[in-house]
Design goal:
Layout (H helix, E strand, L loop, with lengths): L1 H7 L5 H21 L1 E2 L4 E2 L10 H4 L2 H6 L5 H8 L2 H4 L1 E8 L8 H4 L6 E5 L12 E6 L8 H14 L10 H9 L8 E2 L5 H11 L1 E7 L5 E9 L2
Parallel strand pairs: 3-8, 5-6
Antiparallel strand pairs: 1-2, 4-5, 4-7, 7-8
Helix pairs in contact: 8-9
């Protein structure tokens, strides 16, 4: 994957880029379905493993390779998200309800949503995030969710070395990723919490992301006065 992106990507046709995108989505889905250990928050090196391992846990590097951890790299690989994101407009509400989120939660390709208190920085979409929620039951986690879990696993595991990498390497690399832990709503939107924030600041921005962590839809919720 690294060689493809580094040396050949500029010569790849748009059609083949889309095919590659689908293959990567399938790869990421399989990694979460077969290798991720939810109770530990990290990956095993072998499918259906009982416990996470040092060599398995460095799967976070896949997110780095596909640009999910860098706005600059994401733009270089997949194009400027500002040019492709679908703006769902502004929804003025007097009393926020769970159904108000249906439009973005049910939108095509949306795997997770990130909630921002201010307009998101499209050069750094992992900054300024207030909370994360999932549009439906999914095995693929948002990077705002998985990176803090992996960081916790590395910091608490008794394992010290894998075959190709070490605990110390993982800790250092994950610490360099500027993603802070935020509330994660795994079973849909926790409306009461968000309602309180909206009441205090008057506006929230919600962005829907696909499995490659690309923003697909944006909607603004504004408190009606």
């Amino acid at each position: 994957m690294s060689a493809l992106f580094k040396y050949l990507w500029n010569e790849v046709s748009q059609e083949n880029k889309e095919k590659t995108r689908k293959l990567i989505e399938r790869y990421i889905t399989l990694k979460f379905e077969k290798f991720y250990i939810p109770k530990e928050g990290a990956f095993s090196y072998y499918p259906n493993g009982e416990h996470a391992t040092i060599d398995g846990a460095n799967e976070y590097r896949t997110f780095e390779k596909i640009g999910a951890l860098s706005g600059e790299k994401q733009k270089k690989l997949w194009g400027d998200p500002k040019d492709s994101i679908i703006d769902l407009g502004t929804l003025k509400v007097s009393d926020l309800k769970k159904s108000n989120f249906d439009l973005i939660l049910n939108s095509k390709f949306v795997n997770s949503i990130r909630i921002y208190k201010t307009a998101p920085d499209f050069d750094n979409l992992t900054s300024g995030v207030f909370a994360v929620a999932y549009s439906k039951k999914t095995s693929v986690l948002d990077v705002m969710d998985i990176i803090p879990k992996l960081r916790h696993w590395y910091n608490t595991t008794n394992q010290s070395m894998g075959n190709w990498t070490s605990k110390e390497d993982g800790i250092q690399e994950l610490e360099s990723i500027k993603i802070e832990k935020v509330p994660v709503y795994e079973n849909g939107i926790l409306v009461e919490s968000i309602k309180e924030i909206l009441k205090n600041i008057g506006k929230l921005v919600v962005v829907g992301f696909d499995m490659l962590q690309m923003p697909r839809y944006e909607i603004v919720y504004e408190l009606e006065k």
